[in-house]
């Protein structure tokens, strides 16, 4: 809290204090930290020079207009700085300057005194007004020289000096019916200022006893907010005269400078002298009232006395605390460290004493706490970790309770949003997935869609998918598959060949758009489904395309005689590779038959002598859909004395190392698929 003082007569632009020095910050950082000034009263009297770091006067101050007759005059400001958020309270005392001269309510005062008045008789005078305070207010009074009158000064309970003219020598109306005096009021300023009033005293006959108030100065304690019409006091006034000279009437005595200040709140019975309330009294508006009453008799000439009553109010707890949110930092990052300032909160209660002592409370289950900055100002700071994924925001209710009896409370609720931080990696619904795709599918065929989720929000939850190269195939995996980076759908890049690759391991990575980005991976096993895309291949007998295979058999071969054997293979698998052998129909009946499964060609019936050669077309067909086939032409020639050496005639090709390797690969693939 900073404290400065400034005289009230300074011109705008006057330097009040060096904020940068007193705050302990560099001048060049004030603009970057968005230093701003908040006036608690609503009127703007000051401004901040950010270039010089000083507090300047924005308008000329008038202490009397700002604080009236208050003994102290202070203006309260708040300085708010960001990065980090800080609040400083500035109190500026407005110092009084002797810029007002004393002034009497009336330029001329007319008094009356009976000629029979005894020496020592006092004639009260109007009190001069001086808006200045302290030593600049009224210091003393002076009366012009007189043979009959002198000046007496009494001090009232509130410190106000009341001048009275005292009769020192008996009067003789026949000699001097009127006395002219000059009353001067002097203040204590430097230089001294003064004001004068002409005092005219008429000397009268008869009614020689004025009304007397007992006691002349009294004090009454009264609770604020008492019902209208409550009796405050009844004045005790006596007049030793009789008849009309002793009949007293009461009236309020007011000054021109403050007419009706208390007459709006109190009523006076002119006959009985009872003072009652006629409007609600508020301690917060004024804690005490000075009431001056004139008691005047009906004599001729009339005489009057003066009663002074001080009404002091007793404060009751009739004002609820007021909560002021000076600043709120919303949203706040979910990774904010404990102790981070969330809000600056001010509280005030117009009551006094215990009734104005306020404490703040928030719910204990919230990850926040209140820290007292200075009087009536608090900081709301984090007390524990925040997690946006568990709570995206908090409704924070601040409750203010005073210490009065009964207690009064008020509360204010504001919403604090938690900003997301990229603290969660995306997760796949399953780390391993299985997909199937038909071989020879067109490029761009959808294979599978992976799915991942991220509990973060915004760009931290925006996901993109990509395929990683695992090096398991001869070519990069990206030459076989691609993935839609937005929705995770995997597509083929080219047609797949079951006979070349039966299964693929496709590593998929999902990455969010946070900073730094977080990621996770999953593996999709893509199995290629076989398609009947390979026709049977006849490996024996091996003849050029368009040629026939010639086979000689004994002319007297018996039925069942093994002529030859057709051997074929199919690169497909499963039922697509199940082969069957058959003879194509011909116009003539052939004495041969072929075994459907083995491909063996045997003599079906006895051959006739001198029988010609026979042309057979053997067709090999697989079991796929649609079925594919291959055929070979075999010319069988019966010959005399021909002995068939089947082991030689059936010259089956020995499996090459390449065929052996193919068989080994097929076995390994089948075992791998079974294990998966």
TrEMBL record:
Record's bilayer topology term: Single-pass type I membrane protein
Localisation: Cell membrane
Domain Cadherin, residue spans: 5-104, 105-213, 214-323, 324-428, 429-538, 545-657
Pfam families listed in its UniProt record: Cadherin, Cadherin_2
Family matches, as InterPro entries: Cadherin-like_dom (IPR002126), Cadherin-like_sf (IPR015919), Cadherin_CS (IPR020894), Cadherin_N (IPR013164), Protocadherin/Cadherin-CA (IPR050174)
Presence of the UniProt keyword Zinc in the record: no
GO BP terms in the entry: homophilic cell adhesion via plasma membrane adhesion molecules
Keyword presence, Transferase: no
GO cellular component, one term: plasma membrane
A GO molecular-function annotation: calcium ion binding
Keywords assigned: Calcium, Cell adhesion, Cell membrane, Glycoprotein, Membrane, Repeat, Signal, Transmembrane, Transmembrane helix
Alphabetical list of SMART domains matching this protein: CA (SM00112)
Top-level lineage group: Eukaryota
Protein name: Protocadherin gamma-C3
Source species: Setophaga kirtlandii
Phylogenetic classification of the source organism: Eukaryota, Metazoa, Chordata, Craniata, Vertebrata
Gene responsible for this protein: Pcdhgc5_1
